[in-house]
Amino acid sequence: MNETIKNQLNHRTIREFKDEKLDEGVIESLLNVANMSPSSNGMQFFSIVKITDPELKKKFAANGLQDYMARAPHLWIFVVDLYRNYTIAKENGQENDEMIGFDKFIQGFTDSIIAAQNVTVAAESLGLGVNYFGNIHNDTKNIIELLNLPKLTYPAVGLGFGLANQEPQLKPRMDINLKTFENSYQTFDNYNEKIAEYDKEMTTYYDLRNANRRVDSFSTQIPKKQGTIIANRNKMFETLIDQGFIINK
Q1: What φ, ψ does residue 184 adopt, rounded to 5°?
Q2: Which regions in the chain score pLDDT beneath 70?
């Protein structure tokens, strides 16, 4: 097994970092990794906004309801970006609505997530800690305003990284056989039976966000996490429309 796979199998979410900035050479390498990430049709529908202002980080943390977000030495926001290519086409008198449709938005969202994941793999290969921040969608409109994002852009995910200052447990995962099928999707008669051992395993896991207390079983977490919505997240689709994407085709 090579070192890259070992790092991926050892992935942990890091929420506390040493108060040290990384060398600019490392940052340049990570940006180059993002730049060379696979892209739908080679259109490169993403951009990155590096958050360096401490006060702005605090606003992001308040928006996301996670104070440790403000303590990430490096915080990047990956953005779906159809604005750049649409503007290029418009300057050449070749723009059309197909360029800003929902299909292209999905391509841009995919490009953004792939780039973020490639940066994550690269960062962890350098011994760095990483944390994804989906909490930017707690109030996506607010994030758009904070970043001064133009129409035809949309924040996809945040990524905090730096030198880790904690060693959390490896979070258990569901059996891969419940997630892997051949040729067609498979359903099971009793999912609770299938995840019984995983449920037990999850209750032995300590999440450092929760005062070192053990967490609930996975089946108990489902209605708490998947069955509830954080205020303003139900406005994400509305915000997408406000950003100028055409989704009614």
Answers
A1: -155, 160
A2: 206, 208-214, 249
Evaluate whether 68 touches 15 at the Cβ level (below 8 Å).
yes
**Residues in contact with 71: Cβ distance below 8 Å, sequence separation at least 6, in sequence order:** 16, 17, 19
Can you name the residues that pair with 51 across neighbouring β-strands? Answer: 75
Neighbour count for residue 62 (Cβ, 10 Å)? 15
Helices 140-147 and 54-64: crossing angle, nearest 10°? Answer: 170
Rounded distance, CA 99 to CA 150, Å? 16
Helical residues (DSSP H) of the chain, grouped into ranges: 3-9, 24-35, 54-64, 83-91, 102-125, 140-147, 191-194, 196-202, 218-225, 236-242
Q: Which one, of 178, 176, 196, lies nearest residue 187 by Cα?
A: 178
User: pTM surpassing 0.85?
Assistant: yes
Q: Is 79 helix (H, G, I), strand (E, B) or coil?
A: strand
Run of H or E residues at 162 = strand 153-162
Query: Distance between CA atoms of 236 and 166, rounded to whole angstroms?
Result: 33
- Judged by DSSP in three states, 227 sits in coil
**pLDDT tens digits for range 158-178:** 999 999 999 998 999 999 999
Please report the DSSP string for 48-59 in residue order.
EEEE--HHHHHH
SS3 138: helix
pLDDT of residue 142: 96
Sheet of strand 153-162: strand arrangement:
46-51, 74-81, 153-162, 129-133
Provide the pLDDT for residue 210: 64
